[in-house]
Amino acid sequence: MGGSSSKAVASAGGKKADGGSATAGDKGTAGDKGTAGDKGTAGDRAAGGGASAGGNGGASAGGNGGGMAGAAGSLATAADCEKACTNGTCEGAVCVITCNDRHACPEAVKCPVGVPCSVVCMGMGSCMSGVDCQDAESCSVQCAGTGSCSGNVMCGGSSCEVRCEAEGSCTNELRCNAERCDLRCRGVDSCNGKVSCGGRSSSCLIECSGQPSCQDSVESSATQETHVSCADSACPGQLKCGGASCTVSCNGQSCGGGVCCNAVDCNLSGANDQCR
Q: Are 193 and 202 in contact (CB under 8 A)?
């Protein structure tokens, strides 16, 4: 491991990569005005639509861009939500599904089709059969209870934010096929399954800051930009990325399985590129 590798030729925007300065979470990282539990957590301020889970302006992967779940640009209306949201409560156009200690949602949580959806799994062991948010207009999932979201978490739409904040949360696969993906594994032993962004995504941010977290493979097929950061002891499996630009930051003893970058621009810090 060790060492820094910067193999950029020309980034998606036509600028040269700067040798590792832009680690995961650039202009929208954890702790940057919009950490989970901050002014815009999942289920919080959803009715107004401006803030997304983990954002004071809904910063998406690698950028300053607009809100995600419940964004002001939503095409859905409050009437659309009332018609579709049969297993939650509408806050404006957003279908909010809350799973707590009294109602842990032992069955799989499925967001309605075509409207923004916010799922809050705050109870211990809540959402144990997973969350399916693939058909929502946009999605926000907060796994805040110990051992919550132990089933697969899948999302799609225009944007998706997932926060695996509690110890042992998100222990199965976490997969995002939204246009913009923002996946944060912050809890101890969180995200023990595969974490990935699919080829339908244009931008992908994956944060593995729990110690340890992201114990399986981490992959991104996002077409434009990928940002991945791994804290010490995180990401022991192989990390793969492609698309126009990929920035990976490996800290301490992270990224034990190595990094394989097939992007046009590769900007790796703390790891060598095994594919070039």
A: no
- From edge to edge, which strands make up the β-sheet containing 259-261? 109-110, 131-133, 153-155, 174-176, 195-197, 218-220, 239-241, 259-261
Handedness of CA 85, 90, 96, 100 (dihedral sign): negative
CA distance 184 to 161: 8
Sequence-ordered strand ranges (E) for the chain = 4-6, 89-91, 94-99, 109-110, 117-121, 131-133, 139-143, 153-155, 159-164, 174-176, 180-185, 195-197, 203-208, 218-220, 225-230, 239-241, 245-250, 259-261, 265-269
Q: How far apart are the first and last CA of the chain?
A: 15
Residue 182 pLDDT greater than 60, yes or no: yes
Structure tokens, 180: 């913009």
Separation CA 249–CA 187 (nearest Å): 19
Nearest to 262 by CA among 244, 248, 250: 244
User: Is 141 in contact with 111 (CB distance < 8 Å)?
Assistant: no
pLDDT tens-digit map of 15-41: 333 333 333 444 433 334 333 333 333
CA 96 – CA 140 distance, rounded (Å):
9
User: Is the dihedral angle over the CA atoms 23, 27, 28, 33 positive or is it negative?
Assistant: positive
* CB atoms near residue 100 (< 10 Å): 15
